[in-house]
Design brief:
Layout lengths: L2 E7 L18 H21 L7 E6 L5 E7 L13 E2 L5 E9 L2 H12 L11 H9 L9 E9 L4 E6 L8 E5 L2 E5 L16 H6 L14 E2 L4 E5 L5 E5 L16 H18 L7 E4 L4 H16 L14 E7 L8 H11 L2 E7 L1 H6 L1 H8 L7 H14 L4 E3 L4 H4 L7 H6 L9
Parallel strand pairs: 13-14, 13-16, 14-15
Antiparallel strand pairs: 1-3, 1-9, 2-3, 4-5, 5-6, 6-7, 7-11, 8-9, 8-10, 11-12
């Protein structure tokens, strides 16, 4: 998780800090003052999202002062300063800020070195973005696998590009304020950039849990999952979908046996876990006591013990570390006993933090500040408290079982949709 922020001056815009005139106009002291003001703005923007990347902050301003990129780094792969951002192409014409993790980066990197002789200068996976863009242009995103939010500026084409991963795991928001397009990983990054928050009541009422591109705030939108947003030299902003999920036709009979289907799920889940164990920092696991997190914990433990996989930069001989939040027994929400028994059975390290009502309430304001959207319940506060445990122990990365209920209809709200959908496999029931 890193923090990214971008400012794009739109043609004809009347920004107090970004101007339309040629930079040769005016004295050098005026130019320095403008750049200093832009730097100050971006640094303030990054400060609001510094929690996303405490390891390093960097700012880049284009020569014509029309583009400003900022990046707050959380170093996961390639920990040396050569992985600091913003990133720049070897010829200095393409610039990028990247948030996220790109899988299979070693294989893709080797392919690009062979095909286009790209001179990689770091061991960070983020540098793949520049190399892939050089090789494939806007189609670079088709070659990415992972969870990511990316901003690119191509000086030759005067083209700004914002990209979000296929499922929208990494956040990316945008708004137009004061003649400028603003893009950032969190909405609070807009506060120092002349943005004043205003509730979007219509969105709050209509969008439910905000499944569309709207947010809680007027004129602030999400870059949609699986989409590329561009802004050209004329200021034309377009958003196009580069990927959409393909579901199998349930009216076509699946001839696989139950065992084959189960094995298919297991193979994909194991691969998903394995590729996420690659890191140059320690990795842990959230263990709540439910089926989802218990499965992930079990798979990770098996990979570490029997297959020699390492949890990031931890030795494979080290035991897996799991983290859990415990609530008061009378709350009806505590599953820590189940989680602890699971941890004992797996033989993993178990770190538990007990949350009473006062501790829970004390985190409400800060958790809501970080969340930036409304929730149907208070689970997000528990997850916020849970994240404090690995952070206090020096873990930057954790694996979770999030998403399993959505995939396997674990929530009752999905059952009506499943029951209404025609399914050929039900013909004998």
């Amino acid at each position: 998780m890193c923090g990214i922020s971008a400012i794009v001056a739109l043609p004809g815009g009347h920004s107090s800090t970004t101007c339309d005139h040629d930079i040769s106009e005016g004295s050098s002291s005026e130019a320095k003052a403008r750049r200093a003001q832009l730097t100050e703005e971006m640094e303030a923007s990054l400060k609001n999202i510094q929690h996303r990347g405490p390891d390093y902050s960097g700012v880049w301003i284009s020569s014509d002062e029309s583009i400003v990129f900022g990046h707050a780094r959380l170093a996961i792969m390639g920990l040396s300063p050569s992985g600091n951002q913003p990133l720049h192409s070897p010829d200095g014409t393409v610039h990028a800020v990247v948030n996220g993790e790109l899988y299979d980066y070693e294989e893709i990197k080797a392919k690009l070195v062979q095909e286009i002789a790209y001179p990689f200068s770091s061991h960070t996976d983020s540098e793949l973005v520049l190399a892939l863009y050089q090789a494939y242009g806007l189609d670079f995103v088709q070659h990415l696998r992972g969870e990511f939010a990316i901003c690119i500026y191509d000086e030759r084409k005067r083209l700004f590009i914002a990209v979000r991963d296929r499922y929208g795991i990494k956040p990316l928001f945008w708004t137009i304020q004061n003649g400028r397009l603003l893009v950032a990983a969190e909405i609070k990054a807009f506060l120092p950039l002349a943005w004043t928050p205003e509730w979007d009541v219509k969105s709050i009422i209509e969008a439910g849990w905000n499944f569309d591109d709207r947010t809680l705030f007027k004129d602030v939108k999400k870059v949609r999952p699986g989409c590329v947003m561009t802004c050209d030299a004329e200021g034309a902003i377009e958003q196009r979908q580069y990927w959409d999920i393909e579901y199998p036709d349930k009216m076509v009979l699946d001839t696989r046996t139950e065992a084959e289907i189960v094995q298919g799920v297991r193979d994909r889940l194991e691969e998903a876990v394995r590729i996420r164990l690659r890191a140059d920092v320690p990795i842990g696991v959230y263990l709540s006591g439910g089926i989802d997190s218990s499965v992930i914990s079990g798979l990770v433990t098996d990979m570490v013990r029997k297959q020699g996989e390492a949890m990031g930069n931890l030795p494979s001989t080290d035991r897996v570390s799991c983290f859990c939040v415990a609530f008061e027994k009378t709350s009806g929400f505590d599953e820590s006993d189940v989680a602890e028994r699971t941890a004992e059975w797996l033989g993993v390290k178990f770190h538990k933090q007990i949350m009473d009502e006062e501790a829970f309430a004390s985190r409400f304001e800060l958790a809501t500040w970080h969340c930036e959207h409304h929730n149907p319940d208070l689970n997000y506060i528990g997850k916020f408290a849970l994240s404090e445990i690995p952070q206090s122990l020096g873990f930057k990365v954790v694996l979770t079982g999030e998403g399993s209920d959505e995939i396997f209809t674990g929530y009752h709200i999905y059952l009506p949709d499943v029951l209404r959908e025609p399914d050929l496999t039900w013909q004998d029931t």
